[in-house]
Amino acid sequence: MPLLNPFSFLLFFILSTCCVLNLSNATSRAPNRMLALVQDQPLVLKYHKGTLLKGNITLHLLWYGTFTSTQRSILIDFVESLGSTSSSPTPSSVSSWWRTTENYRGGPCTLVVGSQTLDGNYSLGKSLNTDKLLALASKANYEAHVVHVIMTSADVAVEDFCMNQCGTHGWGKRKDGERVAYAWVGNPITQCPGQCAWPFHQPIYGPQTPPLVAPNVDVGVDGMVINLATVLAGLVTNPFEDGYYQGPPSAPLEAVSACTGIFGKGAYPGYPGNVLVDKTTGASYNAVGVRGRKFLLPAMWDPLSSSCKPIV
User: Fold this and answer.
1) Are strands 46-47 and 244-245 parallel, antiparallel or unpaired?
2) φ and ψ of 270, to 5 deg
């Protein structure tokens, strides 16, 4: 996919398709944040009258490759923060960011962490394509209201990783006809930190502003948080290619991917916007989760205002 003008006022990313199980279905991707597209028409994500994921959704996590316990705890804390049941979340909490998904048709979606599987032996090798990702996602018995989330370590190559995606979500059908929803994100620290861990790493193209300090002192995993947030928001609001999106279904702009590059007010290409800074560590963040964990989360499109809504 060609690199487009990085100096465009708004950054939007081209999302691609990939195959799933027994059918070819469009798959939404957390795009390479260095791919930019000028968007002239109003930002409206049209509802295409399909099923959204609402109610209680369980995320089964598969750790594929080598992750430290600290790395796993960062990502688990993020997912648990999304499902926080606080009745009065603070404006800069992770749960308040996620509650924007309630403004999409159908009401709230509550995410909870389900089972966790460690695959430190790289059961399908260190080079994965879409078929292998789906094979990993469909190993377990079918369960309703379940999404399988695959996270690959820095030494695992995944089809199209860094080329035009930093993560993806999609679905397929099992042999019994049941639909399987899945998501994947990879650790970009060794393969493409300038593409998939920005703004915590110097970009490879465009304005060379200084990178922000990662709030959890792990550029790759803090980048994974941004990509996982992007993928999960797209997953629940457009799980089967007929939910909320703009553009063609083969390359949709979704809840967060339509707002790529925006983390705070005043954002422009190469500058993520005004965010919070930890006075002690100098780390940049805009959301606080469980156990006081800090994260930097991208803006999400809000149906009530038809605009990208940064959390701070």
Assistant:
1) antiparallel
2) 90, -10
